[in-house]
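User: Please go through the entry that follows and flag anything odd:
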Amino acid sequence: MASYPLPIAGLVLGLLGLAGALGAMLLPQWRVSAFVGSSIVVFERLWEGLWMSCVRQATATLQCKHYGSLLALPPALQAARALMCVAVGLSLLALPLGACGLRGVQSAGWSGRAKTHLLGASGVLFLLAGVSVLTPVSWTANAIIRDFRSPAVHAAQKRELGAALFLGWAAAAALLLAGALLCGGCCRRRKGRGHRCPAPGPRLPHADERRNRAAARRASTTYV
């Protein structure tokens, strides 16, 4: 397996991207309270995530509350939840496919061509997972920045970018890079198989040679 660094590096990055996507999905620091006012004394800090909202008080106590009704959530939050779950599911499916596509892994009944297709499918799934993570993270960041710069939004309702968004960007980059490496490894295998010289087979006599031999036989029989 050491001779094929692209698929192995892709799977490692895919595993890191899966861990990052799972952490970004579960962490509540998507939106954090912004310190916009003139007062430097802050008694509490608000965190808002996909599944819960938390309040961190000055006494270092943290209180979290899960969101109640799913239908009462904003459509953007519901879409972000769905996309992050899709990303985690695609990554979980892509990892075993990519592992089975490695040439050093013994797979019963699978040829080299089938392993190449598995590797390509794993790369496509990682690319889709990266896009699924990048979309809600970037959309949420754009909404936070837009509300922060809007004068119509009250200072107490302004939010800043949380740590989960940066983790989501890193996970999306790792997943996209993993997909690119796996797809690149698949293309290299297919290109190498297409330029491979066929094994030499038994040499068949040329058509002209067969005709000459037949004519020689006929000539010999006429003389006899």
Remarks:
- The radius of gyration is 30 Å.
